[in-house]
Automatic annotation (TrEMBL):
<keyword id="KW-0411">Iron-sulfur</keyword>
<dbReference type="InterPro" id="IPR047927">
    <property type="entry name" value="YfhL-like"/>
</dbReference>
<dbReference type="InterPro" id="IPR017896">
    <property type="entry name" value="4Fe4S_Fe-S-bd"/>
</dbReference>
<dbReference type="Pfam" id="PF00037">
    <property type="entry name" value="Fer4"/>
</dbReference>
<dbReference type="InterPro" id="IPR050157">
    <property type="entry name" value="PSI_iron-sulfur_center"/>
</dbReference>
<dbReference type="GO" id="GO:0046872">
    <property type="term" value="F:metal ion binding"/>
</dbReference>
<dbReference type="GO" id="GO:0005737">
    <property type="term" value="C:cytoplasm"/>
</dbReference>
<protein>
    <submittedName>
        <fullName>Ferredoxin</fullName>
    </submittedName>
</protein>
<keyword id="KW-0004">4Fe-4S</keyword>
<feature type="domain" description="4Fe-4S ferredoxin-type">
    <location>
        <begin position="31"/>
        <end position="64"/>
    </location>
</feature>
<dbReference type="GO" id="GO:0051539">
    <property type="term" value="F:4 iron, 4 sulfur cluster binding"/>
</dbReference>
<keyword id="KW-0813">Transport</keyword>
<keyword id="KW-0479">Metal-binding</keyword>
<keyword id="KW-0249">Electron transport</keyword>
<keyword id="KW-0408">Iron</keyword>
<dbReference type="InterPro" id="IPR017900">
    <property type="entry name" value="4Fe4S_Fe_S_CS"/>
</dbReference>
<keyword id="KW-0677">Repeat</keyword>
């Protein structure tokens, strides 16, 4: 699954630079994750870096974008051209 940032986000700015796919951007009120770019860091790291670094634990799985590990790996390959 892709991840999403909930309204508990405090706009601390640590998640955006941590994302290797540039899937995180500043939204109107909180940061947002583009599900077309989010691979949960599959292909880059063992765990999602935004989740690891988030100080308020506001980045759960997005139930509207369910994906398997194979789906995420295929997306990683498409994004990176590998």
């Amino acid at each position: 699954m892709a991840l999403l940032i909930t309204d508990e986000c405090i706009n601390c700015d640590v998640c955006e630079p941590a994302c290797p796919n540039e899937a995180i951007s500043e939204g109107d009120d909180i940061y947002v994750i583009d599900p077309d770019l989010c691979t949960e860091c599959v292909g880059h790291f063992d765990e999602p870096q935004c989740v690891v670094i988030c100080p308020v634990d506001c980045i759960p799985h997005d139930p509207n974008h369910v994906e398997t590990e194979n789906d995420l790996l295929a997306k990683y390959k498409r994004i990176t051209g590998q």
